[in-house]
Amino acid sequence: MAGVLFLCAAAVVLLLLAAGGAVPPPPPEEAARMARFVLHNCDWGALATLSAQEGLRGHPFANIFSLSDGPPEPFSGSGVPYLYLTDLEISVKDLEINSNASLTVSLAQTPYCKKHGYDPQNPLCAHIIFCGSIVKVKDSEAGLAKKALFSRHPEMENWPKEHNWFFAKFNITNIWVLDYFGGLKIVTPEEYYSVKP
């Protein structure tokens, strides 16, 4: 029975996509699913580090990075935010001294909020704040990271090799979800990884 329900749900999703629609976000009471959904539907996020730069040392420093948790198909994300980085990048220089960071992703970058007339600051235009650290991926995970990123950001494959690009991931330790009125919801990494977007 569960298999039949899954096939029916998948068929509905495919019909929506074929009709030019999009998969709607989960309901607000499913905060872990919302976090997975928002990350999977975002191609970039704001990464905040503690600056190591002269004149800014110790201050928060936010920067935009392309990211991906998997190919863009519905329900295909791993939940792991992968990034393609170079040591030449200013935020990466910060991370070399302190790998702790926060990452914010928002449905404001998708058509969803505009379609519903939601300002990016409106809680109904869901955004997720992840806290954790950035680490280089191990060789065993590099293939997953490459597929996740290059499927969404194909130009990355042609970025200058002499910049010594490497795959990294955001190791999530804390998750805050703002997707409805009444304040932030806290989701544990265990809850987050146990659900599908």
Short description:
The protein has 197 residues and is α+β, with helices and mostly antiparallel strands. 31% of the residues lie in helices and 26% in strands. It is globular.
Write the layout of secondary structure elements.
Layout: H1 2-18, H2 31-41, E1 44-50, E2 60-66, E3 82-85, H3 90-97, E4 100-106, H4 111-116, E5 127-136, H5 139-152, E6 166-178, E7 185-187, H6 189-193
Antiparallel strand pairs: 1-2, 1-4, 3-6, 4-5, 5-6, 6-7
Explain this structure:
The chain is 31% helix and 26% strand. It is globular and about 45 Å long. The protein is an alpha+beta fold. Strands 1, 2, 3, 4, 5, 6 and 7 form a 7-stranded antiparallel sheet that branches. The protein is built from 6 helices and 7 strands. The relative contact order is 0.19. The chain has helices spanning 2-18, 31-41, 90-97, 111-116, 139-152, 189-193; strands at 44-50, 60-66, 82-85, 100-106, 127-136, 166-178, 185-187. The chain starts with a helix and ends with a helix.
What number is the mean pLDDT?
A: 90
- Relative strand content: 25-35%
Percent of residues in helical segments?
A: 25-40%
Number of strands: 7
User: What does the oligomeric state look like here?
Assistant: single chain
The ordered H/E elements are HHEEEHEHEHEEH
Helical region count? 6
